[in-house]
TrEMBL record:
GO CC, any one term: cytoplasm
Coiled coil: none
Protein name: NAD(P)-dependent dehydrogenase, short-chain alcohol dehydrogenase family
Pfam families linked: adh_short_C2 (PF13561)
Length: 233
């Protein structure tokens, strides 16, 4: 993989959610990049550990890594669509408060705290990217369903956009990006019919890194697909 040109050489990267399919792929490709001097991984199993469902762990992890910064690249490669006892809602009658809270904690509330605690560790010309989803686009919603997942990703997009506006006041060259990875071969996509057309995680990671690399400060706060297309809110 060629060096990510927008970061120059000897850049430092942080991958949060490093044990997922895309997280692992990001780490592998960044380690193969001769321009990357350091790849730091965070997950529920790492030391320090970071669990999006445990807000104190987010603050503690950022504090523990403060001495490694600044990072030129921070990737939040996380998301919750289904789990034991949790499935996307097919109708409004399936909405449950506990499920909504669980999905929003991982897809919206936890990432908001990641931005709060980790943006101070981002280089003034660096990039922070979060994994969103096209189904979080309100304008693009034509099928309905998947209430918690759609709404939590729409909330993530708003949180990212708002953070980008504030961050730009002091760091106008930084980039905060919301990225749609498409359907990727992973446990997240496996139960659904679109999984037959899923792309390997390594391919998706390379495409997303290319989007980040090709972005400019003018793109900060934007919502982009893996092919570089700007997506509607």
């Amino acid at each position: 993989m060629p060096a990510l040109q927008s970061f120059g050489t000897d850049y430092r990267a942080l991958v949060i959610g490093s044990t997922g399919a895309l997280g692992r792929a990001f780490c592998a490709q960044l380690r193969a990049d001769p321009g990357c001097a350091l790849v730091t991984e965070l997950s529920r199993q790492s030391t320090p550990a970071l669990d999006l469902a445990d807000p104190p762990s987010i603050a503690a992890a950022a504090q523990a890594l403060a001495g490694q910064g600044p990072y030129q690249l921070i990737l939040l490669a996380t998301g919750l669509l289904h789990a034991p006892g949790l499935a996307p809602e097919k109708s409004m009658s399936a909405i449950e408060a506990d499920a909504l809270q669980r999905v929003f904690q991982v897809n919206s509330l936890g990432p908001a705290l990641v931005m709060r605690h980790f943006l101070p560790l981002l280089d003034a010309r660096g990039a922070l990217a979060v994994l969103s989803a096209k189904v979080g686009s309100i304008e693009d919603n034509r099928l309905g369903g998947w209430y918690a997942y759609r709404a939590s990703k729409a909330a993530l997009n708003m949180l990212l956009k708002t953070a980008a506006i504030e961050h730009a006041r002091q760091h106008p060259q930084a980039r905060l990006l919301s990225l749609h990875p498409g359907t990727v071969i992973s446990p997240l996509s496996q139960p659904f019919r679109g999984a037959a057309k899923a792309r390997p995680a390594a391919q998706a990671a390379a495409e997303l890194l290319r989007v980040v690399d090709n972005s400019t400060a003018a793109d900060s706060g934007g919502f982009f697909a893996y092919n570089g297309e700007r997506l509607p809110w």
